[in-house]
Structures are given as structure tokens and as C-alpha cells.
Design a protein that fits this description.
It is a single chain. It contains four helices and four strands. The protein is of the alpha+beta class. The chain has a domain of 77 residues. A hairpin with a 6-residue loop joins strand 1 and strand 2. 14% of the residues are buried.
Length: 111
């Protein structure tokens, strides 16, 4: 069982939990240039109404990251042991690009 103990400095520096989703980015305001350069396919996907999802797969011991546009799923990747969120985002960005260029869906979850 994972410990839920946190230090005082962690609790004091944590952002307050409001129960509300973050406000959407104002129209016309671009994200940080470094993020656009690192993950351009994710940025294009989100700007066109798509989404990225990261989470546990029910009834398994697996975690996945998926990308879909309003019409279809583009990629479903199994998160690797000890993989950082940055590396997951790097891989899903590449998978989105592959799906768009080659019209080939990547599925590491179902085989």
C-alpha cells in the first residue's frame, strides 16, 4: 500500500484543489513556444478538438496514454514501467504524427 504521508512543505506548496476543471486556454493565446516545439502533434490535435487521455486500464495492472480526434482514436500506448510523463508525451506525439502521415492506428493495448 502506498503511503499518503506528505511533508509540510509539500502540502504548503501544492496548488489548492477546487474540484473544478482548469479554465480553457483563451482563444488566440498560444501556449508556451517550447511546448509547441516539443509536442507539435499534440498541440495540433488539441487545437482541432482532439484529446489526450492518461490513466489506468480497469481490471488490469496497466496504464495507458491515448490520443483521439473527434472522429477516431489515433493511438493507444501502454505506459512502460518507470516511464516518465515527459517520455509518454514524446511517444504519443510521435504516434499521432505517424497516424496522420501513414493513416495507421497504433494499438499497444489490444495487440
Amino acid at each position: 500500500m502506498r503511503s499518503r504521508a506528505t511533508s509540510r512543505s509539500q502540502r504548503e506548496s501544492a496548488a489548492p484543489v477546487t474540484g473544478k476543471a482548469p479554465s480553457p486556454r483563451p482563444k488566440g493565446k498560444a501556449p508556451e513556444p517550447a511546448l509547441q516545439e516539443r509536442w507539435p502533434n499534440i498541440q495540433d490535435l488539441i487545437d482541432s478538438g482532439g484529446e489526450i487521455t492518461i490513466g489506468a486500464i480497469p481490471s488490469t495492472n496497466l496504464c495507458a496514454i491515448t490520443a483521439s480526434d473527434p472522429d477516431q482514436c489515433l493511438a493507444m500506448l501502454r505506459v512502460r514501467p518507470d516511464e516518465s510523463i515527459v517520455h509518454m508525451l514524446d511517444r504519443i506525439d510521435a504516434a499521432i504524427g505517424h497516424a496522420w502521415v501513414h493513416e495507421e492506428f497504433i494499438d499497444e493495448i489490444n495487440g
